[in-house]
Amino acid sequence: MHAIKFWQIITRYSFCCVAFCVCITASFGVFSTSTFASTVTSTDTNIKNNIKNNAAQKSRWEHIKTQGQNQDVYFYAWGGDAQINAYIQWAAKQVKTKYNINLVHVKLSDTSEAVSRVLAEKSANNNNQGSVDLVWINGANFATMSEHSLLLKQWANKLPNFVFTDPINNPAVNFDFGLPTNGMEAPWGQASLTFYYDSLAIDGSANNKLPTTLNELLHWSAQNPGRFSYPKPPDFLGMSFLKYALVMLHQQSNESVKAQLNQPATALNMAQVLNPLWDFLNKLHPTLWRGGTHFMQSGAQMRRLVDDTELILAFTFSAPEVPAAVKRYDLPNSIRSYAMNDGSLSNTHFIAITYNASHQQSAQLVANFLLSPQAQAHKQQAHVWGDKTVLIQSTLNAEQQALFKTTKPHPSALPFNSIKRTLSEPHPSWVDAIMQGWQTRYGVSK
Q1: Is the pLDDT of residue 2 over 80?
Q2: Measuring CA to CA, which residue among 183, 133, 185 is closest to residue 158?
Q3: pLDDT tens-digit series, residues 235-256
Q4: pLDDT at residue 47, rounded to an integer
Q5: Mean pLDDT, to the nearest integer, of 316-326?
Q6: Cα separation of 337 and 413, whole Å?
Q7: Under a CB-based contact definition with an 8 Å cutoff, are residues 90 and 383 in contact?
Q8: Which residues have a Cβ under 8 Å from the Cβ of 178 and sit 6 or more positions away?
Q9: Which of 29, 44, 427, 440 has the greatest number of CB atoms lying within 10 Å of its CB?
Q10: How many CA atoms lie within 13 A of 159 on its CB side?
Q11: At a CB cut-off of 8 Å and minimum separation 6, what does 432 contact?
């Protein structure tokens, strides 16, 4: 009797469990089907949106190509280097053939000349027929032009060749001196502070050993008075040396002080950040060429002083400039290049289109060509310019990657992979702070 009742209970509960499982399975099936359908619908929507966006981008670019051909483009760029000028002329021939664009290189001694021109045009309400189409600018100029709304926005990141910079994994192409570019600039190349010396004059003895850090440079200059110097501000190369010194002097500072380099210069933080630089220069200047009582005006003048054997140690922000100068006999065959062990000030340099450019579409065609594998590979060749490409090799196909293969470098060229540590540029506001402080302390009658 008890056994029969026991099996009745078990049977009843078994039936309930089976029914429950059937319900759950059915519900799960409905849920899964619904979720799957939803996922498919979402995926289909994303695919359709991507296709639509790609089509819109393609249509936009075709419109730019149509409107931009057969026009002039006035490219305002520094004209102080023969190699760079020759490269721009090469690019001009390419865009002439490709788009019938007449690229005019307006040579500048300082990019601030272009900034001043665009500011003047804006003050005169010339908002559509500007004389500057394309401009090669540095971080300080970008900060100024961005602040005054002098640049065309959201165009650079839409160039077809911009994808080769791999912006997702290479965010440096979207920032200039720490400031977001917001599509106002297209990356053009990368450069680092490079030192060069006369190998016949530096013999490796205890007092004449090649300096590889900022502290060693101070000691070397004291042991070899008058054989080193730097161009006076506001020269770009001179400012680059001062920024390198400033960054290195704060490597051992506490984090709160070091962080100030990436923030705007203010009356509150200026003395704390810059006083170590003035202390360093007070020690360095008496050991320099002409006792630090006179400074050269440019990197070209510094190079001539090396050729005249007055200086035996110098530097440049364009490493290929050195072998090119040797080949032109502007520097002796005994010149060698190297990078400082403690770090090399480095940055990505950009080109921009002004907000009132007369030929905006044409300027975009030129900028896109300058970002092409063909143009970037040609520019990276040491005998052409040697400017490091901003393109990421993994984004290129085999044929495009082959364009970047190089031959054996010149003996005076910077050895491959010499730069072991790069130093980021400080906030652009420190340029004015350094320049004003330098002029006050060392600029009178210099």
Answers
A1: no
A2: 183
A3: 989 999 999 999 999 988 888 8
A4: 63
A5: 87
A6: 6
A7: no
A8: 139, 262, 424, 425, 427, 428
A9: 427
A10: 32
A11: 140, 265
Rounded distance, CA 362 to CA 365, Å? 5
Helical axes 82-99 vs 373-380, angle rounded to 10°: 160
Q: How far is CA 91 from CA 29, 95, 319, 351, 420, in A?
A: 63, 6, 21, 14, 32
CA distance 153 to 446: 41
Instruction: Bin 386: left if φ > 0, else alpha if -120 < ψ < 50, else beta.
Output: left
**Residues in Cβ contact with 294 at an 8 Å cutoff, skipping those fewer than 6 apart:** 446
List 73's β-bridge partners, or say none: 103
pLDDT value of residue 444: 64
Strand-pairing partners, residue 197, are: 313, 336
Whole-angstrom distance, CA of residue 348 vs CA of residue 173: 7
185 close to 364: Cβ distance less than 8 angstroms: no
Tokens of 264: 């705007």
CB atoms within 10 A of CB 236: 18
Separation of alpha carbons 337 and 320, rounded Å: 10
| pLDDT digit string, tens, across residues 265-318 | 999 999 999 999 999 999 999 999 999 999 999 999 999 999 999 999 999 988
Whole-Å CA distances, 120 to 115, 129, 143, 164, 184? 9, 13, 17, 36, 20
Q: What is the DSSP letter of 309?
A: T
Sheet strands (E) in 24-92: 72-78
Residue 407 near residue 418, CB atoms below 8 Å: no
Q: Side chain identity at 350, as an amino acid letter?
A: F
Decide if pLDDT at 445 tops 80: no
Q: Are 177 and 425 in contact (CB under 8 A)?
A: yes
Q: Which residue has the tokens 């509150």?
A: 268
Q: Taking Cα atoms as reference points, which of 68, 164, 122 lies closest to residue 363?
A: 68
d(C-alpha 343, C-alpha 424), whole Å: 10
Question: Can you tell me the distance from the alpha carbon of 299 to that of 237, in angstroms, rounded to the nearest whole number?
Answer: 6
Cα torsion 50, 51, 55, 61: sign = positive
DSSP state of 130: B
- Checking if the pLDDT of 7 tops 60, the result is no
